[in-house]
Amino acid sequence: MAINSINPIIEELESLFSSFNEHYYNNELPKPVITVSPDDSRRGGVLGWFTVNKLWRGTNSEVAHHEINICSNYLDGTPEEMAETLLHEMVHLYCSEHGIQDTCQNGVYHNKKFKYAAEKHGLVVRHKTGEDFSQTYLSDEAKDYISTLPINISLYRLGKPRSVAPKRQSTRRLVCPKCKTIVRVTKPNVHIICGDCQVPFK
Q1: How far is CA 7 from CA 18, 56, 74, in A?
Q2: Is residue 165 helix, strand or coil?
Q3: How many CB atoms lie within 10 A of CB 102?
Q4: Closest among 120, 100, 93 to 32, alpha carbons compared
Q5: pTM of the predicted model as reported, rounded to 2 decimal places
Q6: Which residues, including other chains, have CB under 8 Å from residue 6's CB and lie 6 or more apart?
């Protein structure tokens, strides 16, 4: 049967979250809103993300929720790879709930506090570069546990989105050496003559 909705994927991820929450966190973690959307190039090609801020709230509710996103570009991987991404983001949720500062540089670098929390909850962390511990893998125990779960992702995105980051225009300030009139230009190599003084702007 053809499937043209991401709802089954969301339900599958929510079920997987509940299983991990029970197995690794004793159902301690609050349920986030789980989303599936394309990789945002501004984030550097990540597999998923967790929002520290609570971005979601029901129409008639005062309770807000965090977001965990799994990038749709990578759903064509193995069930283990998808599970590892979800577990990784759940570690961020755990750290957020416990007031643990697990990243720096706006979430780019994962520190040793993240490493410690991740290795308590089904992941193995390898040192990436410098003080970055963002590279995670499933522990052997996690692989064995996941193998008992009926993970079935039946729809995935074909290819990565083509997105172009907006170019930032830089301006140059030119001044007439005589009358001190100022102009700003965006082209790097432009020659302008002051109409009043008949001399080039510098």
Answers
A1: 17, 18, 17
A2: coil
A3: 23
A4: 93
A5: 0.72
A6: 36, 72, 155
Per-residue pLDDT tens digits of the chain, which is 202 residues long? 345 778 888 888 999 999 999 999 999 999 999 999 887 655 556 788 898 888 888 877 788 999 999 988 777 778 888 899 999 999 999 999 999 999 886 666 899 999 999 999 999 998 766 678 888 999 999 999 999 988 776 555 555 444 434 444 445 667 778 876 766 665 556 677 777 777 887 7
- In whole angstroms, give the CA distance from residue 32 to residue 21: 11
- Residue 178 CB contacts under 8 Å (≥ 6 apart), including other chains: 194, 197, 199
> What tokens appear for 47 in the block?
């597999």
Neighbours of 4 (CB within 10 A): 5
Give dist(CA 133, CA 84) in Å, integer. 15
